[in-house]
Amino acid sequence: MFYTPARVFCIDESLIPFRGRLIFKQYIPNKAHTYGVKIFKLCAGPGCTWNMKIYSGKEADQNNSILTKIVLELSEKLLDTGRMAVTDNYYTSIDLANQLLQRRTHLMGTLRANRRGNPKEVVGAKLKKGEIKAKQVEHGISILKWKDKRDVLMLSTYHFNETLTIQIRGKEIVKPLMVVDYNKGKSSVDLSDQFASYGSCVRKTVKWYHKIAIKIILGTAIVNSHLLYEEVTGNKISLLDFREAIIDKLLDRPLTDPDVKKKTHAFEKHPGNSRVGRRYCRGCYKKKLKNEIPKNKVKKLPLFVKLVQINLDTVWNVLIRAIINRNFLPFFL
User: Organism's domain of life (predicted)?
Assistant: First the structure.
């Protein structure tokens, strides 16, 4: 089944924790893990990841800035469909807005005051709490400044200076509609990272490329499947129960080829004259210490180990089901 993202999608970056030596390791102070491998993500809806790109260093592009190129690459298959991209001030610029408008796509996001082309009368305006200053520049691109606890600078190709009255702790507060819609659309990537962090298999000793594979397969893919399952069936199920249901379903299939057998050890009698004095083998010595075998018979027992074949299917299935039923969990945690 193919998933079609909603009208509003969000582009942001996530960080896979890693503190080892890596030429493109990134430092992002506002993330839960400040050092790691950066991944640019396009998410839609309640946290479903639709596209991603691993940051591996700066790329040269004569026509676009690096950030503009990333946004256009991630959203390439969603352009020209009348959708809206939501970005933070790391990506948002008037240049990006113009390029997306040429591809019939709106842009909305927070804006840095030092971006090229920002109107000075809006950026430099001194506002009191609750006041709004807005201006439309080229091609209907709106730049808005709103004073809340601090100055908030926004860009949108869809909104202008519309406001909305909302209730917060019993008080009526007037907010720009641009800010309200931005807060709704920006939550997709945050929800995706939050869901993927539950039951994470990433560990400190794992190599960086293994961490990326584990994060995508056992994190992002499981979260996407869980969200789509709830959307299609209408059944609400916790992420933990969904993971366990996947494991149970996978265990219904043969875990290994029944013809493949693992080698193990077994005792065999040593050839030659048993009267010749020789040292005890390790297994016989252990049995002698336990007084399982009389001392005068130990030397006549097998003195070397051979390899034999056993079928692991039954053993493996029993072990996995014991772990799922939490019989062995205290030994692993």
Answer: Eukaryota
Q: Does some domain include residue 1?
A: no
Q: 277 and 138, same structural domain?
A: no
In 151-274, DSSP assigns E strands to 151-156, 163-168, 171-176, 261-268
Sign of CA dihedral 248, 244, 46, 17: negative
Contact 247, 324 (CB under 8 A): yes
Residue 102 is encoded by which pair of tokens? 């040429």
Last residue of a domain, one of 245, 273, 291: 245
Phi, psi (degrees; rounded to nearest 5) at 308 = -125, 170
Reported as a single tens digit per residue, the pLDDT across 206-263 is 788 888 888 888 888 888 899 888 888 888 999 888 988 888 888 876 545 556 566 5
Number of structural domains found in the chain: 2
- From CA 149, how far away is CA 10, in angstroms rounded? 25
Are 312 and 212 contained in the same domain? no
